[in-house]
Specification:
This protein is mainly α. The protein is built from five helices and two strands. It has a two-stranded antiparallel ribbon with strand order 1-2. The N and C termini lie close together (12 Å).
Length: 70
Amino acid sequence: MPIIVNLDVMMAKRKIGLMELAEKMNITPANLSILKNNKAKAIRFSTLEEICKALSCQPADILEWREEEQ
């Protein structure tokens, strides 16, 4: 998948665990885990906004585009 979710990297930089972040965002840990493990097919802008608020970061800190390997 050419879009990579670097949520795990940003969580490590901010020293915040999955349960704490899920609580801050009012999202289930299971749904947050799907994002963290790069298994999500889509993300709502409202969810991305909540992540950025909770982690004090920019969307580009979370999402990365990589060219698909041939």
